[in-house]
């Protein structure tokens, strides 16, 4: 019977996901920053602030929701700036070698609609033994450059 794989821990900290130098265009307006900071104080030094449709704000040391088509300002790093497209793809598990060839708006949609890479890999590794029972697993995995049974 199929069972979902256990999460791999520890998770990558935000400090490894976030870029050190960020263009000014990603920073929220002073008005938005002020409103957020009046409503919320984070318990974390580095966090992503999430504002839901009701205006409630919560912050976590990870991102809990990348959604395509959501408000441009609903996720802010420390209540101050938007995530860059590269940061969004990092949160989804894409390597930095992944080439972003579209504008920021399209990249946000792509990252928001993406399934995290590590989840796809984990599910495929769990399913392969069921799907490929009559096939040589080594040749199947070599074709996809996956190391079966390794973490």
Q: Care to describe what's here?
A:
The chain has 151 residues and is mainly alpha-helical. The protein has two domains: 14-114, DNA Methylase, Chain A, domain 2 (Alpha-Beta Complex), CATH 3.90.120; 115-151, no CATH class. Helices cover 36% and strands 7% of the residues. The protein contains six helices and three strands. It has helices spanning 14-17, 30-39, 85-91, 104-113, 117-131, 137-144, and strands spanning 48-51, 57-60, 75-77. It has a three-stranded antiparallel beta sheet with strand order 2-1-3, with no helix packed on it. Strand 1 and strand 2 form a beta hairpin. The radius of gyration is 19 Å and the shape is elongated. It starts with 13 loop residues before the first helix and ends in a 7-residue tail after the last helix.
């Amino acid at each position: 019977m199929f069972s979902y794989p256990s999460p791999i821990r520890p998770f990558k900290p935000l400090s490894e996901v976030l870029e050190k130098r960020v263009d000014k265009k990603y920073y929220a307006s002073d008005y938005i920053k002020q409103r957020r900071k009046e409503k919320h104080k984070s318990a974390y030094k580095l966090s992503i602030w999430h504002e839901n449709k009701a205006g409630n704000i919560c912050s976590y040391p990870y991102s809990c929701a990348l959604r395509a088509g959501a408000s441009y300002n609903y996720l802010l790093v420390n209540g101050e700036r938007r995530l860059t497209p590269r940061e969004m793809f990092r949160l989804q598990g894409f390597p930095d070698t992944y080439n972003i060839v579209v504008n920021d708006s399209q990249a946000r949609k792509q990252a928001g609609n993406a399934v995290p890479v590590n989840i796809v890999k984990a599910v495929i590794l769990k399913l392969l033994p069921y799907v490929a029972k009559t096939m040589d697993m080594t040749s199947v995995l070599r074709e996809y450059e996956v190391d079966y049974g390794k973490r």
